[in-house]
Design brief:
By secondary structure, the chain is mainly α. The protein has one domain. 76% of the residues lie in helices and 0% in strands. The chain has 21 helices and no strands. α5 crosses α11. The chain is globular and about 70 Å long.
């Protein structure tokens, strides 16, 4: 009974601290320390074990299997690509290639989100970058403000879960999965999502007479080459990891080098731009790792109070089946995405819910326990991504409005995003029913690697 009360107090303090606007890392650290002290007073541990906090934090940050060194590299790559202006060139190029496709500018906007995937961890930067180049052509072509706003928001949200997006790194870390398999697991679902979104826009915008881009805006040979190089640089990261050629950190380092070359080739490189990008990378990396440290301390205190087991017993008391429990947990993650940044959800809340996910035995549905974890991780990533598009609190929707020209209001963007959210929820349901859509590519990679070892 005492542990249950302390667990409730701990979660209440966490919620109060976060909603009060205090830095999340400080809230996590303070709550974790208070939980440790509470555990001492109820006899779960003693002050002699205070060093556990240092050992746990050190163990997490120095764990070679996690490859935290790739985090600043992926953040830097995303910021460099944004600074290079590749989104504008990419939009013009795709606009020319998709001439015969109804709603081509909306489809081009969606594809930009995939190519700028490394920047999608910084969802605000990704959405705003796309908005600046895509809104005007879509509105000039007579697209409804709702369709234009939804396309921009969806573009920024799509890249969040497409390799080599940094969100997938943390999902794989939480579930202790190989990064190559986590990357491979989301390829088919995200491409299906892009296809479904594109079909939706093609149908709803089929009667629009699209205004061609001006002759001055047509892509030059230099533009086309820079787009090809940028796509090659980004694609090389997951492909080299999946093929076993490079580790995540090595692949990210090569990607950064390629991103810098693209920026130089486009004539955008300057000492001022490089300085700003490095400073932003350092600031964002510090924020991420401060949260990692805080989440580690919070997790230690929460476990000392037996919090995970208490949560499991609470949910188990509802006597739900495994499918109803899975639906409830995915719904919780979706709602959390309205309020918290994805890094906070993955480092704070998901580890709390992880023991409950672990009790859901879907091995018979998926095939094996390991592939069941890959399937669950994929569903969680997609549920989190859906939250960015869901009115009224989706982050991507707010950023799409922030960068919108006059005449596009938030209600329009909400209206346009609604059907996309329905499509995504239906897709998540299909992926839950047919797990091979997530596990097929990881299984293929594993079978290929096993056959190579045997030979």
């Amino acid at each position: 009974m005492v542990n249950e009360v302390l667990t409730i107090i701990m979660l209440a303090l966490l919620a109060f601290g976060v909603f009060s606007g205090f830095p999340v890392a400080l809230v996590l650290t303070t709550t974790g320390f208070l939980a440790f002290i509470a555990a001492v007073f109820i006899g779960e541990t003693d002050f002699g074990h205070l060093g556990l906090i240092y050992l746990r934090v050190r163990g997490v940050l120095t764990n070679e299997a996690v490859q935290f060194t790739s985090v600043p590299l992926l953040i830097f790559l995303g910021l460099v690509l944004n600074a290079s202006g590749i989104a504008e060139t990419l939009f013009r190029t795709l606009g020319q290639l998709l001439k015969s496709v109804p709603g081509r500018y909306a489809v081009a906007t969606l594809l930009i989100g995939l190519i700028l995937a490394p920047a999608a961890g910084v969802i605000g930067a990704s959405v705003v970058t796309v908005a600046l180049v895509a809104y005007t052509p879509m509105l000039r072509s007579g697209y409804p403000a709702s369709a234009a706003g939804a396309a921009v928001a969806a573009s920024g949200a799509l890249g969040v879960v497409f390799p080599p997006a940094i969100l997938l790194f943390f999902v794989a870390n939480v579930f202790q999965l190989r990064f190559a398999l986590m990357y491979a697991a989301l390829v088919v679902p995200v491409l299906l999502l892009v296809l479904l979104f594109s079909i939706y826009f093609a149908i709803t915008l089929r009667n629009r007479v699209e205004v061609p881009l001006s002759d001055q805006a047509k892509p030059t040979l230099r533009d086309v080459l820079s787009v090809i190089v940028a796509i090659g640089v980004i694609a090389a990261i997951p492909l080299s990891i999946v093929a076993g050629i490079a580790t995540l950190s090595e692949a990210a380092g090569i990607g950064v080098f390629g991103g810098l070359l693209v920026t130089v080739f486009r004539g955008r490189m300057s000492l001022n731009l490089l300085n700003k990008t490095i400073v932003r990378t350092a600031s964002m990396t510090s924020m991420v790792f401060f949260i990692v440290v805080g989440a580690t301390i919070f997790s230690l205190g929460f476990n000392l109070l037996d919090g995970p087991n208490i949560l499991f017993l609470w949910i188990d008391s509802f006597d739900l089946g495994r499918w109803a429990t899975l639906t409830l947990l995915l719904g919780i993650i979706l709602v959390l995405g309205f309020v918290f940044d994805w890094i906070e959800i993955l480092l704070v809340f998901l580890p709390i819910l992880l023991p409950i996910f672990g009790q859901l035995d879907f091995a018979d549905h998926v095939g094996t326990a390991y592939f069941a974890n890959i399937w669950l991780a994929g569903l969680i990533a997609l549920a989190l991504q859906t939250s960015f598009l869901t009115p009224p609190f989706g982050y991507a929707l707010f950023f799409a409005k922030m960068a919108a020209p006059p005449g596009v209001n938030l209600a329009d963007i909400y209206k346009g995003a609604g059907p996309l959210v329905v499509i995504e929820v239906l897709l998540i349901g299909a992926l839950a029913g047919w797990p091979k859509l997530i596990t097929w590519l990881p299984a293929l990679i594993l079978s290929r690697s096993d056959s190579l070892l045997m030979n």
